[in-house]
């Protein structure tokens, strides 16, 4: 019995050992099998699985690139990209359209019925309202309405409101520039989103790491304009004052840098706020300075004179008989406002005699007059960087009847834009070189650092320097006592210009309306070395509508603020004659515009040491004026702008000492 | 080093590696929530807490004379059967992913099936040693345990917990073999068992789908094959050396259960073939040492118990690795010591503690 038990136990134990051994063998096989399988996947097939992983884990992600900032010449932001919330509805999730509409209507300020209509549509995505204000956004979010969602979108904000509204234009809800600078530089300002490789998780959510942080929305290219917010505001204020004072329909003004045709201001009245373009009439969006064509009146006599003097038909001092104020031409009679007998050519411009102009244009001939106008840019686009520009209306001279070209001499029957007038007068101021106006200066990055300066427009000489000089002097007389533009005279600066008062054709009758005129003034200042040129147009003023009364004061108001703002040294003693001390500022170097240093020119006691001012970059006249006000003498050499001076700036000299200056044509 | 010391070193190494991998694999889920957390984060710190509890349990069971389990086996099995039924009582049982495997105790959930496996090993070992002489007869020997196993399996399948069922069947077979059940009875059971498993798999359509998915996951890569493909992508892209600890990307919501059932896939991705080889070697070492304990055991009960406990731990590890490597159908089995989960961790530590108890009392 015991032996049986023992034997059984021994057999059982032997079996146990065999089983354990088998288990161990199985275990080793399993272990080897698992490692082989892992090796097959990881080493042999590794590339295949890695490829699949990259395919699912990495994805391209679009970094929003928001619309570039538009800045003025001083870097002030005129148009900014901002995030705005937009409200949408998911029709499938809205169970109570009526109740939802009741909540939303007062917040959005929209009709409840209209909202109900939108909310009842069982569409998965309907825009309810785009571009919410921050207050609306907060109230809608707090209401927690089912099926109503907010999506953040990049929109546009114009911090200065209606300042230069028609120039800057606006952007539509889909981010496309629709008017103005926004439209013409749309390709630059609106950039495609940047693509980056980003990790995604299994739920298609993007995953960011410390060394691969989420990219922030960025701005790629901004635009800096020549336009200056201060000058723009000054222009708009002066224009508004004139329009309101004279009960006029509308007005426009352009301020150009006469040296390089930069558009410093382009004012409209009534103005337009691009922040609320949708609530404005499309008619108000238009940039009337470049798009609207009108008959300019007597300001065109400037360019007639240019032709006459250039062709040598008459000299400035030659006499013309002005028919005592009345002249018959075919079936028409031409009048002067004040009757004149014999006038010099110079005075024809000064008193703006129509009869004198007719006689001059008859002497010049239609072809040469036409050519002169074309030379100055009438009848064709100026090439400004703004959309919707009109070329004006200048019929070929071959189609002119004698009376047509006779009245064209004083600016009737010719259609021009305000900008054309401004560029043409700037060409005279600039010594006879006509440039193409430019609003935008350069491409900048988000930090307003220069990326690329935009090239200036093409320039052509349209007048000899000598004729331009004659013409400038003649225009200077217009603002002097006895001229038509005395209200354009400035207290600290010399100025020059020409007035115009044009009859307005009534569109319904095709005849000139008896009581409607356009008041125009074109001019530049300082007359001695012109810096700014301006054209002012006021449409249909009530009462006395002469250009010299309505438009010229706008010129004066703007110039008296703009010239000191730009640091142009005064070239005229104040009218009150007092030799009061004053702050004189000037440009250090014309190539580094904006670098302005100030210098206090107190009148020191005789015999004291005097600090020599920096004259570099100034014209001869300006340099002499600056030295004179400091009690110093000038010894000039050469012509053009000052490039060298002896003693140098900042050095001491006795009052009455002579400063040698060398000038060079730059 | 003594045998017990070697097993302790293996246990501690597995536990430490487990906390580390849970930390790595759970980080994306924490980050996704946008929470700011310090240190290990909720998952890894809980796992560390469970590991400490597990070490205490292992030390505790090491010191209990294993002969006591003979007497405790029957009551324990009864407790387990009751606990497995409790998950069906509303308010007590917890349903996660349409499976009722848990019930709630305070802030933790307990998975009774993990402990059922340990208890079944204890019970079957005690039964086989007590009925030594009666094993020759089919009815008095193997049949009662078969019926009990059927009841237990039925309860597990209702949850459903197919993976635990397979483990129970496999361990029972091994224990019957080493415990002295005649071979002819066992060979009779093989076709019966296989047929049973086959029917179960085929009658339940989702189970069949999962079964077939592993054979060719690409037939339905977005649904039934998705888990496996993501696991293979994780492991395959790991290469020889891995992408680096913590640098894995498949845990970014691609792997379905990156820190529980598929934690080995994270190991494969981040530590490569090297990591998987070391892990397999560790399991094999444990298996070898466990069988060594059984060979040196003082009495047959200790020997059979040691084999059962060793197999319980290693089989789960192997099946889990087989699933993750795409050679077995997905079952929802945890990898002992590594996968996040208190029940699995403490049950495994209890098993190792009992194994150490056997080793402690061997001559």
TrEMBL record, chain A:
<keyword id="KW-0472">Membrane</keyword>
<dbReference type="GO" id="GO:0005886">
    <property type="term" value="C:plasma membrane"/>
</dbReference>
<dbReference type="Pfam" id="PF03717">
    <property type="entry name" value="PBP_dimer"/>
</dbReference>
<dbReference type="InterPro" id="IPR001460">
    <property type="entry name" value="PCN-bd_Tpept"/>
</dbReference>
<feature type="region of interest" description="Disordered">
    <location>
        <begin position="635"/>
        <end position="654"/>
    </location>
</feature>
<dbReference type="GO" id="GO:0008658">
    <property type="term" value="F:penicillin binding"/>
</dbReference>
<protein>
    <submittedName>
        <fullName>Peptidoglycan synthetase FtsI</fullName>
    </submittedName>
</protein>
<keyword id="KW-0121">Carboxypeptidase</keyword>
<dbReference type="InterPro" id="IPR005311">
    <property type="entry name" value="PBP_dimer"/>
</dbReference>
<dbReference type="GO" id="GO:0004180">
    <property type="term" value="F:carboxypeptidase activity"/>
</dbReference>
<keyword id="KW-0378">Hydrolase</keyword>
<dbReference type="Pfam" id="PF03793">
    <property type="entry name" value="PASTA"/>
</dbReference>
<feature type="transmembrane region" description="Helical">
    <location>
        <begin position="21"/>
        <end position="40"/>
    </location>
</feature>
<dbReference type="Pfam" id="PF00905">
    <property type="entry name" value="Transpeptidase"/>
</dbReference>
<feature type="region of interest" description="Disordered">
    <location>
        <begin position="588"/>
        <end position="608"/>
    </location>
</feature>
<dbReference type="InterPro" id="IPR036138">
    <property type="entry name" value="PBP_dimer_sf"/>
</dbReference>
<dbReference type="GO" id="GO:0071555">
    <property type="term" value="P:cell wall organization"/>
</dbReference>
<dbReference type="InterPro" id="IPR005543">
    <property type="entry name" value="PASTA_dom"/>
</dbReference>
<keyword id="KW-0645">Protease</keyword>
<keyword id="KW-0812">Transmembrane</keyword>
<feature type="domain" description="PASTA">
    <location>
        <begin position="607"/>
        <end position="665"/>
    </location>
</feature>
<dbReference type="InterPro" id="IPR050515">
    <property type="entry name" value="Beta-lactam/transpept"/>
</dbReference>
Automatic annotation (TrEMBL), chain B:
<dbReference type="Pfam" id="PF01098">
    <property type="entry name" value="FTSW_RODA_SPOVE"/>
</dbReference>
<keyword id="KW-1003">Cell membrane</keyword>
<feature type="transmembrane region" description="Helical">
    <location>
        <begin position="188"/>
        <end position="208"/>
    </location>
</feature>
<keyword id="KW-1133">Transmembrane helix</keyword>
<feature type="transmembrane region" description="Helical">
    <location>
        <begin position="76"/>
        <end position="94"/>
    </location>
</feature>
<dbReference type="GO" id="GO:0008360">
    <property type="term" value="P:regulation of cell shape"/>
</dbReference>
<keyword id="KW-0812">Transmembrane</keyword>
<feature type="transmembrane region" description="Helical">
    <location>
        <begin position="339"/>
        <end position="359"/>
    </location>
</feature>
<keyword id="KW-0573">Peptidoglycan synthesis</keyword>
<dbReference type="GO" id="GO:0071555">
    <property type="term" value="P:cell wall organization"/>
</dbReference>
<keyword id="KW-0132">Cell division</keyword>
<dbReference type="GO" id="GO:0008955">
    <property type="term" value="F:peptidoglycan glycosyltransferase activity"/>
</dbReference>
<dbReference type="GO" id="GO:0009252">
    <property type="term" value="P:peptidoglycan biosynthetic process"/>
</dbReference>
<keyword id="KW-0961">Cell wall biogenesis/degradation</keyword>
<feature type="transmembrane region" description="Helical">
    <location>
        <begin position="262"/>
        <end position="288"/>
    </location>
</feature>
<keyword id="KW-0131">Cell cycle</keyword>
<feature type="transmembrane region" description="Helical">
    <location>
        <begin position="164"/>
        <end position="181"/>
    </location>
</feature>
<protein>
    <recommendedName>
        <fullName>Probable peptidoglycan glycosyltransferase FtsW</fullName>
        <ecNumber>2.4.99.28</ecNumber>
    </recommendedName>
</protein>
<feature type="transmembrane region" description="Helical">
    <location>
        <begin position="300"/>
        <end position="319"/>
    </location>
</feature>
<comment type="pathway">
    <text>Cell wall biogenesis; peptidoglycan biosynthesis.</text>
</comment>
<feature type="transmembrane region" description="Helical">
    <location>
        <begin position="48"/>
        <end position="64"/>
    </location>
</feature>
<feature type="transmembrane region" description="Helical">
    <location>
        <begin position="142"/>
        <end position="158"/>
    </location>
</feature>
